[in-house]
Structure formats: C-alpha cells, structure tokens
Write a structure and sequence with these properties.
This protein is an alpha/beta fold. It is built from 13 helices and 7 strands.
C-alpha cells in the first residue's frame, strides 16, 4: 500500500486483506516450469481457443470487417479440429452486424461500452451506450471502472456505477475492466476486484485491462485477481468469472494462464463461461500449435488468416 492512501482505501484493505507481492511473483514463476504432456497440451490449446474473445476495436471498422471476423470466429481454421471461439467483441455501433452474422451460432456478441477505454463520460451517457448495445443484440458488455474515483478513495461512487451498469445490462453478462496498470499496486487490484464482485451476479466477470495501456495482463496481476475470486467464492458462494486481456500473444503464455486457473480455482473455472482471453492475436498461435500437434510440423504464420487487434 502506498503511503498517503485515502482512508476509504485503507479501510477496504483492512476488510479484504493485502497482497504478498513477493509470494505472488514466486508462485507465478513456477507456472512456467510445469510440464504438459501431449494429450493435455492439445486439450489446453483447444480450451484456450474456446475462451478467446475475437475482437476488432478500430475507428475504421466496417460491417464487412465485422462479417469477416464472425466467419473466423465460427471456423477458426477450416480442416483443423478445433472449437469455435467464445465471443466476437466490437464497438456498440457494430453490434447489430455481429448479431446478424452470429444469430444461429453459440458464439456470443460482446461489446465494449461505458466510454471505453477511458470511462470519462457522464454516467447517463455511459448507461445509454450499454442499453443501446444490449438492444442491438449484445450478449455481453465490457465496461471500464472510474479509476480516478477509485484512487481518490471515492469507492461508493465506483461501486454504485458498477451496480447501475449491472441493471442496464438486463440479462447480458457484464465484464468489469479494472485497468490494472492504472491501479498501480497489487493491493489496489485486489481491493478493486472485491469492490466489483460485491455487486456482480454469478457468472459476471472481472477483467484486467482494456489493452490500450502500456501494461496489460500478466501472470502476476492475473494471479491476484484469481485469488480474489477464490476468496470471494469461499466467503459468499458466488462464482465470479475472470478475463485477462492484452499482452497474451503465444500459446505458451495461454497454457501458463490456464495452469494458474487450475491450480488456484480448480477445474470448474476451466471453461469459457468462467474464463476468457481478451487477446485476439493469440488465436492464430493457438491454431499454429494445434496444427503442429496434428502434423508434426510448424506452418508459416501466413498459413493462417490474420487475427484482429489484441485487447
């Protein structure tokens, strides 16, 4: 905890506990040493594919680009035995196009909202954006918290805003983005996780990052959030889901993140209703590794269609 933290934050730290940062780093370093055998590796690669939120978040997005992304989501690589991805994530203006192309699939339509990525808009504007995305067919909403309010100790405001977004979502799943790089410390990440989880519903998510800052998902901040989910579940019985986002580009990294899930939360979280990867550029490396397990040879990167941006 930093000296001079607001009193409200200190009280929250007292309630939920602080983080042994050295212990976290030592634990996550061990995940890279785990040996994964062939059949388990293939299972892990396929599970990771099924957990990807395939994403495009560019100002130049078009209905045609969204259609292409949906086609890749449905058939990540024709001829390769692998599952579909979990969701296609787009800006609110593109939701109706994604919903049209995914209408007869099990793939969810997700949309970033609440003035993503800054969150710096009046609350009524942010809520209107959520409601519009849901009305156009979004099954999931990814919101950003007010980091400035959190760091200033205005915790009631942060929690109240999450609660009203939950209401605006209706039946849509909510993913609450903490933006861990701007929270700065493991103690703050743990505290913000609890603040969100206390007003979320079973199956809603907490998420590391927007992917728009210099530091995104790491094994360390992922571990802090997994342990917060574990402790919250043990205390309340409410299962909250997890989404690391940004910076996860290789299959090797993804498998390490899945090891963290298994060893911290158990097999019940090893599915795409409780764990996601917000890292679309990861998908092609997962496909490349699956192809290698099938044929024994690596294919050139251009063998796979280009993925959308990572976030």
């Amino acid at each position: 905890m930093k000296a001079g933290s607001p009193a409200a934050l200190r009280r929250l730290f007292d309630e939920v506990g602080t983080v042994d940062a050295v212990g976290i780093e030592e634990r996550v370093a061990k995940y890279a040493t785990r040996s994964i055998k062939k059949s388990a590796k293939v299972w892990g690669l396929k599970a990771a594919v099924s957990m990807v939120d395939l994403t495009t978040l560019e100002g130049k997005d078009t209905p045609g680009k969204v259609e292409s992304l949906c086609q890749k989501a449905v058939a990540p690589h024709p001829g390769l035995d692998c599952p579909q991805v979990a969701a296609v994530c787009v800006y609110p203006a593109m939701v109706k196009y994604a919903a049209r192309h995914l209408a007869h699939t099990a793939i969810n339509v997700a949309s970033v909202a609440t003035a993503f990525p800054s969150g710096q808009a009046p609350l009524r504007t942010r809520l209107a954006e959520v409601k519009a995305a849901v009305a156009d067919g979004a099954d999931e909403i990814d919101m950003v918290i007010n980091r400035g309010a959190f760091l200033a100790g205005d915790l009631a405001r942060v929690q109240d805003e999450i609660a009203v977004v939950v209401q605006a979502c209706g039946e849509a799943t909510l993913k609450v983005i903490l933006e861990v790089s701007e929270l700065e410390t493991y103690d703050n990440i743990r505290a913000a996780s609890f603040l969100a989880m206390r007003v979320l519903r079973p199956g809603d998510f907490i998420k590391t990052s927007t992917g728009k800052t210099s530091l995104n998902a790491t094994l360390g901040n992922n571990q802090v959030m997994l342990e917060a989910i574990r402790d919250f579940y043990l205390d309340t019985g409410v299962p909250i889901a997890m989404k690391p986002a940004g910076g996860i580009k290789s299959a090797k990294q993804a498998l390490q993140f899945l090891i963290a899930v298994k060893e911290t939360l158990g097999d019940e979280w090893l599915n795409n209703t409780r764990y996601r990867f917000g890292a679309s550029s990861l998908l092609n490396d997962l496909l490349r590794q699956l192809e290698k397990e099938k044929t024994g040879a690596y294919q050139a990167p251009y063998y796979f269609s280009e993925a959308a941006e990572s976030y």
